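stuck on whats below:

***
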Amino acid sequence: MSATRPNLPYRIHALELGPMENFIYVIEDIASGRAGVVDPAWEPEEIIALAENKGLQITDLLLTHSHHDHINGIERVLESAPNARLHLLKSEADFWGRALARPELHHGGDVLRLGSTEIRILHTPGHTPGSACYRLPAGDDLITGDTLFVFGCGRCDLAGGDPEQMFHTLNDLRTGLPRHTCIHPGHNYAETPTSTLDEQAQGNPFMHFHDVAKFVHYRMREHDQVRSSPYGPIPKPSSG
């Protein structure tokens, strides 16, 4: 699955791999043939084969967070691309506590260059302390990891999770980015693989709350009792 729109410097290729319906993304910089792999996991040979089949050189690995299901292919991909750089937020590296090969540690607001493609790093805590989303502003694409799913959001009950932070993160995404931004989530948990922020503002129940205590109750106690994947839209209530 690939996303291509005219006049953009990049393409986004998506692979659904592993038992947890992970999306692994390969960002292709069209002019240079460089590729950035987001969250290499589960079946690294598939990732390597995609790059080889399209004539791409993997030069960067970008992590949205450090949970095992998003990083278990790092070593194999680095073996195939010995000069590739590994990117994640410093706060996530501190939380992870693992010695990393060739790390480049970042802060929210930093910008990466993948050839002609600009990638902005957003710090989006809640699922983990250093969770990141990667924004490609030329096409208003946003790779969201486990921060924001189509009509869902990441768990906050694992180590490092914080539902109050998730509340503020989701509200910042809803209010701070263009409504036509296309989100590319870390798992295929919904009826459609991608969506716009406007569709999420209208139909994602986690984006309907204006009261943090109500959000925390819904995320931590109610949601998993009343919903199951594949997720679909829920109408926006009159108040939240």
Summary: The chain has a mean pLDDT of 96. The longest strand covers residues 10-17. The two ends are 36 Å apart (CA to CA). The helical segments are 44-53, 68-71, 74-80, 90-96, 163-176, 197-203, 212-226.
